[in-house]
C-alpha cells in the first residue's frame, strides 16, 4: 500500500516553498531533502542535541520532533535565513566568526537559530543568561566558552546595527 | 531513525477529533506538541496505526483563571504550550508554582512546542506538571464521542506512562486549584545537566493559620516512583512558626526520605535519591513557608 501524500507549503526565510510528502516526513527532512535547504543539521533525531533547531512563527523548535504536515502554512526561519537582508552574515553568524564560536560547525546552525530568537527576546543578556540560553544545544568541540562569548558579541553587533539603522533613518 | 508509516488525521474541531478517535479506537494516538511522542516514533519504540494531530484545535489553545465564588482555578487547554503557561501573567499571579516548575521542564526550545496537558497525559514519572497537578489536587477533563468526564489527578495517573484515559478519549484541559489562605509553594529539583530529567524533584505546599503557625505541609516528588507521590509532611512541622522556629524542616525531609521508595538506575542509586529528597524537601519547605508568611490575606 502506498502512503497517502500531503502537499505542505511553508513560508521559509520569506519564500513560499511547497512539496508533497507523506505525513511521517519530519520537518528537518522536509527542509533538507524536499526543499534542499541543508543548512539545518540533524544530529540525534530525538530532540536532545539541538542541531536541527529552526524558528517556527519566530519561536525556536526542534525540527526533528515535528512533522512537516503539522506546521503546514507556518512561517519558518532556518540558519540560511539568519543573514542580513543584503545576504551578508547576520549578527549572530558574524559573532560566531569573530569569536571562534565554532570548530567542526555541525552544531552551529542550531546555535545560530536559537541565539537569534533569544536575542530578540532578551537583547542584552549577561554572561550567565547567555550560558542559560544555549543550555539546550550540544557542542562537542568548543567547550562552549567561545559560544557564550559569541552570544554576547552578537548582542553588541545587534545593538550596534539597530543604532546604525536608527541613525540612518530619516 | 524515522517514524514508521501511520494514517494521519488533522481534525479542526474537538467534536471532529473525538469522532476520529472513536472511529480508529483503540489504534489511535493523539499528537499535540510531540516532544515526547515523536522521539518514541523516531526510535520506533511506538508505532501507532493512526495519529490524530490536535494542533489545529485552536479552541483548546488557552490559559485562563476561573473564579467560582472565590475558589480560583488555573485552567489550561490542551493546545497551550508550556511557554504560553509559563508566560501567562494572570496564571503566574494566581499560582506562581506553575512558572517555577515549568522553568525546570526541559529547555525553552522544547517548551515552545510541548504542551502542559500533553505532558500530563504522557504521565512520565519525571514529568513536573503532572506532579504539580497531583500536589494541588487538580483535575483532568476528558472528552470522547460518549461524553465528557472529569477525573482527579490521583485517579488519572495509574502508572509510569499509564493513565485512566480510554483510547477514544481526548484530554481537553487540566485544572490547577489555587491554594487558599496563607499558603506558600515551592518547586526545586536536581538534574545532572540543566534541563535534563530530574534525578529527584520536589514540589511543596505549606499552609499557615492566622497566627502564622503551620497547619498543613505536603510534598510531591518526580523521578522517585512510578507515579507522582504526594506525601503529607504536616506532623513534624505542625504548630511551627516559620518566622521563629526552625527545627521541624529537617525532620520533615527525613520523614519524606523514609517514606519514599525510589529505584536505582544508571543516573543514581536509590540511596542517593533518598538523600536528595531529604535535602531538597527541607529547602523547599523553608522557601514555601517563608513565602506563606508574605501572603497578604
Automatic annotation (TrEMBL), chain A:
The keyword Hydrolase does not apply. PROSITE patterns: 2FE2S_FER_1, 2FE2S_FER_2. One of its GO terms (molecular function) is 2 iron, 2 sulfur cluster binding. The keyword Iron applies. InterPro entries: 2Fe-2S-bd, 2Fe-2S-bd_dom_sf, 2Fe-2S_ferredoxin-like_sf, 2Fe-2S_ferredoxin-type, 2Fe2S_fd_BS, Beta-grasp_dom_sf, Diverse_Oxidoreductases. Pathway: Alkaloid degradation; nicotine degradation. Keywords: 2Fe-2S, Iron, Iron-sulfur, Metal-binding, Oxidoreductase. It holds the Pfam family Fer2. Residues 6-82 form the 2Fe-2S ferredoxin-type domain. PANTHER family: OXIDOREDUCTASE WITH IRON-SULFUR SUBUNIT (PTHR44379). This is (2Fe-2S)-binding protein. It comes from Jiangella asiatica.
From TrEMBL, chain B:
It comes from the Bacteria. Pfam families: CO_deh_flav_C, FAD_binding_5. Gene3D superfamilies: 3.30.465.10, CO dehydrogenase flavoprotein, C-terminal domain, Uridine Diphospho-n-acetylenolpyruvylglucosamine Reductase, domain 2. One of its GO terms (molecular function) is oxidoreductase activity. Signal peptide: none annotated. InterPro entries: CO_DH_flav_C, CO_DH_flav_C_dom_sf, Diverse_Substr_Oxidored, FAD-bd_PCMH, FAD-bd_PCMH-like_sf, FAD-bd_PCMH_sub1, FAD-bd_PCMH_sub2, Mopterin_DH_FAD-bd. PANTHER family: XANTHINE DEHYDROGENASE SUBUNIT C-RELATED. Residues 1-181 form the FAD-binding PCMH-type domain. This is Xanthine dehydrogenase family protein subunit M. Keywords: FAD, Flavoprotein, Oxidoreductase. SUPFAM superfamilies: CO dehydrogenase flavoprotein C-terminal domain-like, FAD-binding/transporter-associated domain-like. It comes from Jiangella asiatica.
Amino acid at each position: 500500500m502506498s502512503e497517502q501524500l500531503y502537499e505542505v507549503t511553508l513560508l521559509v526565510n520569506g519564500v513560499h516553498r511547497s512539496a508533497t510528502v507523506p505525513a511521517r516526513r519530519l520537518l528537518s527532512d522536509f527542509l533538507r531533502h524536499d526543499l534542499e535547504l541543508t543548512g539545518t543539521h540533524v544530529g540525534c533525531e530525538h530532540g536532545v542535541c539541538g542541531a536541527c533547531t529552526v524558528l517556527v512563527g519566530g519561536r525556536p523548535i526542534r525540527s526533528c520532533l515535528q512533522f512537516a504536515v503539522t506546521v503546514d502554512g507556518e512561517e519558518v526561519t532556518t540558519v540560511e535565513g539568519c543573514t542580513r537582508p543584503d545576504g551578508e552574515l547576520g549578527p549572530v553568524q558574524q559573532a560566531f566568526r569573530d569569536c571562534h564560536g565554532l570548530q567542526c560547525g555541525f552544531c552551529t546552525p542550531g546555535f545560530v537559530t536559537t541565539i537569534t530568537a533569544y536575542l530578540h527576546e532578551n537583547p542584552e543578556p549577561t554572561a550567565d543568561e547567555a550560558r542559560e540560553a544555549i543550555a539546550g544545544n550540544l557542542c562537542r568541540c568548543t567547550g562552549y566558552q567561545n559560544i557564550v562569548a559569541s552570544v554576547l558579541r552578537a548582542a553588541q553587533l545587534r545593538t550596534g546595527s539597530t543604532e546604525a539603522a536608527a541613525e540612518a533613518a530619516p | 531513525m524515522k517514524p514508521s508509516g501511520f494514517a494521519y488525521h488533522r481534525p479542526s474541531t474537538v467534536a471532529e477529533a473525538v469522532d476520529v478517535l472513536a472511529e480508529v479506537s483503540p489504534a489511535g494516538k493523539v499528537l499535540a506538541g510531540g516532544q515526547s511522542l515523536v522521539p518514541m516514533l523516531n526510535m520506533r519504540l511506538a508505532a501507532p496505526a493512526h495519529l490524530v494531530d490536535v494542533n489545529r484545535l485552536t479552541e483548546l489553545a488557552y490559559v485562563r483563571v476561573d473564579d467560582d465564588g472565590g475558589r480560583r482555578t488555573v485552567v489550561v487547554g490542551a493546545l497551550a504550550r508550556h511557554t504560553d503557561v509559563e508566560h501567562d501573567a494572570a496564571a503566574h499571579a494566581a499560582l506562581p508554582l506553575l512558572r517555577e516548575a515549568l522553568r525546570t521542564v526541559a529547555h525553552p526550545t522544547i517548551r515552545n512546542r510541548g504542551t502542559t496537558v500533553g505532558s500530563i497525559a504522557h504521565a512520565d514519572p519525571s514529568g513536573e506538571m503532572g506532579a504539580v497537578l497531583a500536589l494541588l489536587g487538580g483535575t483532568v477533563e476528558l472528552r470522547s464521542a460518549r461524553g465528557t468526564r472529569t477525573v482527579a489527578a490521583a485517579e488519572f495517573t495509574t502508572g509510569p506512562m499509564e493513565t485512566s484515559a480510554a483510547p477514544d478519549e481526548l484530554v481537553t484541559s487540566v485544572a490547577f486549584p489555587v491554594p487558599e489562605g496563607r499558603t506558600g509553594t515551592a518547586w526545586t529539583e536536581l538534574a545532572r545537566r540543566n534541563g535534563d530529567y530530574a534525578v529527584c524533584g520536589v514540589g511543596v505546599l505549606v499552609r499557615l493559620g492566622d497566627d502564622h503557625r503551620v497547619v498543613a505541609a505536603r510534598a510531591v516528588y518526580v523521578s522517585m516512583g512510578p507515579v507522582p507521590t504526594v506525601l503529607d509532611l504536616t506532623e513534624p512541622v505542625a504548630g511551627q512558626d516559620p518566622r521563629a522556629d526552625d527545627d521541624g524542616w529537617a525532620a520533615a525531609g527525613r520523614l519524606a526520605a523514609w517514606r519514599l521508595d525510589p529505584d536505582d538506575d544508571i543516573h543514581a542509586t536509590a540511596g542517593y535519591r533518598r538523600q536528595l529528597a531529604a535535602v531538597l524537601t527541607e529547602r523547599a519547605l523553608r522557601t514555601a513557608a517563608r513565602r506563606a508568611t508574605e501572603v497578604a490575606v
